């Protein structure tokens, strides 16, 4: 059994803003576009990625949604971004406002200390 620690997953907070093209579609058209144009590209070109999607438009004018991606490693994340950029998601349906990428509690691993900033009450 190997004692080598595996690399921590990569987490990306993709801050996006809807475009007029996306908003001009009906909700049914949006779902259809996502299911037929975006998801197949992600599934065809990536493995080891998971996501969660958060609506923020009722709290923010700069960012309408936050898409949280977790990838098994940096290569999986890179393949994800490459896949998204080849679909209408990127710059047609959404403007990517910012990408915040990191690893959870990286400081704790680096310094060999407890992850005291992860709090649950």
In short, what is this structure?
This protein has 121 residues and is an alpha+beta fold. 35% of the residues lie in helices and 26% in strands. It has helices at residues 20-24, 27-45, 74-85, 106-111; strands at 10-18, 49-55, 65-71, 94-102.
Describe the structure.
- With 121 residues, the chain is of the alpha+beta class.
- It is 35% helix and 26% strand.
- The protein has four helices and four strands; from the N terminus they run E-H-H-E-E-H-E-H.
- Strands 2-3-1-4 form a four-stranded antiparallel β-sheet.
Q: What proportion strand?
A: 25-35%
Number-wise, the strands total: 4
What general outline do the C-alpha atoms trace?
globular
Task: Write the H/E string, N to C.
Answer: EHHEEHEH
Our count of helices gives 4
Structural class: alpha+beta
Q: Summarize the amount of helix as a percent range.
A: 25-40%
Compute the CA-based radius of gyration: 17 Å
Give the termini distance in whole angstroms: 36 Å
Main sheet: strands, sense, barrel: 4 strands, antiparallel
Model regions low in confidence, pLDDT < 50 over at least 5 residues = none
Detail the topology: elements first, then pairings.
Blueprint: E1 10-18, H1 20-24, H2 27-45, E2 49-55, E3 65-71, H3 74-85, E4 94-102, H4 106-111
Antiparallel strand pairs: 1-3, 1-4, 2-3
List keywords for this structure.
121 residues, alpha+beta, 35% helix
